[in-house]
Amino acid sequence: MRVIPLVRFALAAATLAACTLATAAFPDKPIRIVIGFPAGGPLDQHARLLSDKLQAVLGQPVLVDYKSGAGGTVGAQEVMKAAPDGYTLMLANTGVMVINPALYTKLPYATLKDFTPVARTAMQPLALLVNPKVPANSLREFMDYARTRPGQVNYGSAGNGGISHLVPEMFKSETGLFLVHIPYRGSAPAFTDLMAGQVQFMAESIPQAANYHKQGKVKALAVTSRERNPALPDVPTVIEAGIKGFEVVGFYGFLAPAGTPKDVVAKLSDAFKQVLAMPDVRNRMITQGADPAFLGSDDFAKFLATEMPRWAEAVKKSGARLD
Fold this sequence. Notes:
Blueprint: H1 3-25, E1 31-35, H2 42-58, E2 62-66, H3 73-80, E3 88-93, H4 94-103, H5 111-114, E4 115-130, H6 139-147, E5 153-157, H7 163-175, E6 179-183, H8 187-196, E7 201-205, H9 206-214, E8 219-223, E9 249-257, H10 262-276, H11 279-288, E10 291-295, H12 297-318
Parallel strand pairs: 1-2, 1-3, 5-6, 5-7
Antiparallel strand pairs: 3-9, 4-7, 4-8, 4-9, 4-10
């Protein structure tokens, strides 16, 4: 009479032991980081800054894989469908995680349902940029320039639905300017066309913006944070330019497929915490214009739950909507 319960207990114990052993061995093969945008953009820069150090902490190769398209949605679907074993992660930005759910009417994923937050790794203000040939050296001068050329000034973005699309829409809403949106398949090609003059305006992450601003390949007119950024100390904020309350700061973070074991998530989260505590990584991020802002899995999940309604309201006010 007691044989079946004992067998069940033995099987449960064996399964638990196997899972514990598997978690203890994690990772025992390369880890893949999927980015939903082409190589060369700000997410790629962030991944490469962290990947070598992460590789040393975890003891396994860390590979970056690009699955670009639809504002990061293609990459998100790739990770959503991957095995929930910790070996496939998504590095995503504000657009993929919290803007897309409010912007797209038919989004194939739900951030908090289809993914397990692993770690927030950075807070990321943006810079408002123009091509060097645009005759404006301040945001006010650009506004005057664009106002006299309605529909003739283009702005590039990393694709429909991303923060580089939404921020200029918010800027348009606040100023009443008529700027034409030109979406690209990622930040890198949009930035290339900004430097070439195919588009005249762009909102871009500060690490990328600061580098090319200093080389004179673009002009940074303002930053979207409440305070000036150390990477662009001479560039005023949008608020300083006279647009009250205009503060938009994005963020980067890593997510795993839903159902990834908690112990595996905890091990990955701790690895990111170790990397972001390294002085050379922190200093490089700050110099580039990003804020090393680690949150572990649970706190990151709470942060996302707070951010989603805030961005949904921003999308609603901007009037932006995509199918």
